[in-house]
Amino acid sequence: MHDETPNTSSAASKHGRPLPEEGGRGDGRPLLAVADLQVSYGGINAVKGISFTVEQGEMVCLIGANGAGKTSTLKALARMLPARGDIHYAGRYIDAVPGHALVGMGLALVPEGRGVFARLSVAENLAMGAYHRNDGEIAADLEHVFELLPRLRERQTQFAGTLSGGEQQMLAIGRALMGRPRLLLLDEPSMGLAPLMVQKVFEVIRTIAARGVTILLVEQNARLALEVCNRGYVMESGRIILADTAANLAADARVRVAYLGE
């Protein structure tokens, strides 16, 4: 992936160049494969050549301290930061795909800090999640979001900026779901929330994963992340220093001391 401005007029820039053999759906390839990802901005070398994979149907976490490069990694995947390296998603190179086109390819980001449109209503925020769609199933998907997140139905005419922090997090997740994501990137969903609301948010995340959406989770609450995920990567100073199953990472003495407070 390069930091040049993509030519969005070409088919390759809109949909990504296919790998030598089309992949990503039942061919044994990971849904997401990242190789030697490097992210620098504002004089900061935030990510220093990391490689990792996410398989179809998995829930994978990136854990680490503040400043480890976790959020920069997600932003690079969503084309919100310039980056170098190879990113293969759903059997295609997406190095020249602009961020708005990735949503149409089924890759959605729920950003750190929620990023809701404060002066739009809840319903309008959810509609923004389906901006790229012109099919006849948007209304049905909205109903599914309301069933999963009933508080949003109750608040649908309310300005998003007047919601509580937990409700805004639910709205950000619901907005992403309106795009019918195949891969959902979640950046610090528990940040700033009371413990009871954190529990509710992660119940929703588990339900989304159980419905077949692949999830890449960045979460500073390492204990919670390792409880819900299949596998994990530990980041430190822009590099991946450990990679294993979530259970093995939770049992690793280094992880327990550094991130689980034991």
Helix-strand pattern, N to C? HEEEEHEEHEHHHHEHEHEEHH
| Unreliable parts | 1-13, 20-25
Instruction: Give the overall shape.
Output: globular
Task: Report the span from N to C terminus.
Answer: 39 Å
Number of helices: 11
Task: Let me know the largest β-sheet.
Answer: 6 strands, mixed
As a percent range, the share of strand residues is 15-25%
The residue fraction in helices comes out at: 25-40%
Number of strands: 11
Mean pLDDT: 90
Radius of gyration: 18 Å
Would you kindly provide a written description of the structure presented here, covering whatever features stand out?
The protein has eleven helices and eleven strands. It is an alpha/beta fold. The strands form two sheets. Strands 7-8-9-4-10-11 form a six-stranded mixed sheet, with helices on both faces. Helix 8 links the parallel strand 8 and strand 9 (214-218). It is globular. The termini are far apart.
Outline of the structure:
The protein is α/β, with parallel strands linked by helices.
